[in-house]
Structure prediction request, 366 residues.
Amino acid sequence: MKLQVGRNELLSALSAVIGVVERRQTLPVLSNFLLDLKDDELVVTATDLEIELEARARVQNLAPGRATVPARKLFDICRGLPEGADIALEVGAEKALLKSGRSKYSLACLRAEEFPAMGRVADGRVVALQRRQLKTLIEKTQFAMAQQDVRYYLNGMLLEVNSRRVRTVATDGHRLALSEIGLDTGVGEQTQVIVPRKAVLELQRLLDNTEEPVQIRLGAGQIEADLDVVRMTSKLIDGRFPDYERVVPESGDKHLEADRETVKRALARTAILSNEKFRGVRLSLEGGKLTLQTHNPEHEEAEEDLEVSYSGAPLEIGFNVNYLLDALSALDEERFVMELKNADSSGLIRGASNAASRYVVMPMRL
Prediction:
């Protein structure tokens, strides 16, 4: 295999797929890229056996072929070369030779036949939406995913598609994030899949805020996202996601409405003196006043009084301050609404004029 390519073109393809390459691998070949050269296109593939990323780059094809090369080393070499440099790459059975200007690098290779392929998603349901739409859905929910929870189905994001909307949901058992967009999907029957945490974060990284399309294909045990020059294929989590609609509380009789940034900054300040283990903050609501209080084992205390719009009986309730900050940070609107029932019931946070994104936070005893 032999080719010539611009450094920027090759680095763009390598950057798109390097995120899936783990530093410690069960199989040596998984620390390599698979390079497949046909016509004037080089396809770069990386996988960890759960996720496969594939990116394409335009090159000058001098001799077609397939080979694997050390991923991190090739990526670091290309990244270190000058902007706009030209690269000549020649790969044999055991060695790859990279030349650029007066620089020369020799890398050890493994046989392309050893590289595992996940295969394309066949006969799946296809949904097309704008990249910025999918990126927004992910950004507004991914932070609530669990990390290494024994309830493995929580270590990912629910993607739910029906004929009228696309919805994402994530929960770690203590809080829940839900976001949706109205869309004529062309999908007749409602479909739910659980996308693993790593695949969600990789997809978020690959998406941009453009109106360019991304095509999602949902198959048996796999999801495929096609972004034109980059394609991600991932295994799905085989499990049953909780009935999240039962968790989202119906409208409470106590309504707090306030400026999002003002409350967010006050929470961040009071969080400084919260218990580092439990991160609790007490909210006291009465009339047009919200009082935030925290304390810690060193007997330090913080208190902030804020003017808000509140309707309902006086209420004191405790929450994890980080969960409140995450929810408020995910909202776009200047003002937010928090709906409450009592000190033992979950709170619902949403935008003041838009409920497309909703956040449920369980209370805690302080």
